[in-house]
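This protein record is not my work; I was only asked to verify it. Would you go through it and say whether the fold makes sense for this chain? Here is the record exactly as it was handed to me.
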Amino acid sequence: MSVFDELVGQDDVVRQLDYALHTPGAMTHAWMFTGPPGSGRSNAARAFAAALISGGTAPNDVTARVLRGHHESLTIMSTQKSVIAIDEVRELVSKAQSAPVNSAWRVVIIEDADRMTERTANVLLKAIEEPPPATVWLLCAPSPIDVLTTIRSRCRPVRLRIPSREAVATLLIERDGVDEGRARWAAAVAQNHIGRAKYLARSDSAGEERRKILEIPDKLTSVGATIRLAGRIVDDAAETAKARVEDRNRDERRALLTSLGIETEKSIPPSARSQIRRLEEEQKRRSVRARNDELDRIFLELMSLYRDILMYQLGIREGWINAGEGDLIAKHANRDGPDTTLLRIDAITEARRRLQTNMSPVLIVESAFVLLSNPWLLDA
């Protein structure tokens, strides 16, 4: 077993990273991991960091700490904001100048390098051009063109792809001990996304949660029902997001108060209120993104349904994402033609795009659901 275990079906990437680790003179100080969502670019960067810091590719206690993001020679930036602030990068550059602790390497990972503006990227540029001898930068982005040319030209590229459905299922079976049938179902409905597949395979409620999402089109029976359902879904997404981030928010607030020497909430001095306010604003942005991620997940599940419906309408009976939902797929497919299904897919695509804007999430979901029930409105 290797620390690169999750890079299933990507032996070329494993060989590239392994060669750099074990070949004298092959190492470089800046790397760029690119690949579409689900390709595992952040996981690959963390695995490489774990191998660097621990001094090998065989898993041990040190690699486990690095993979969890907890090591004194590792710094990870994973933002919840649409743009990485220039001050955040300046802080990273400052940390990168420090000598490694309990390791031969200090590693800095930027998981959303595509969110740097040109001005911010230029702050990073000099640090990448002239890094300390023991510092390694690992940048992650969807594609090379999403990063400033001067940055990507100084990074060694690592290009990842989405692993095959079979490879993801095999990983779940061999590494996580998942039953074969459930592993294949999880790999399919996760659309080959390893992290999502692992969650689905190990969650007792995942199947029922997905079933409720796939039943949404049958509930869009009137304008009133559609509007009410959209509101409930946004509220549920907000509650799920709150549960995901509340522990982290509480721990961050407690840590900040401790660092400021504040013992209780009642004793916050005026001089510290600006720092508390900045933390609260950051946490609010994180909650918004977590809610939008939940809504995007719902849209992706609906997209998978309409993809299978379209395949059915075109006479394709293999390669479905929702292979166990044949009756549901056939019912919807026989109601309309492929042109109508494509309009519904367009509606979902537009809704996912709008989630990246400041548009009200309720309006986004309402609009999408109205178009799913009346797709011809797109042609009006």
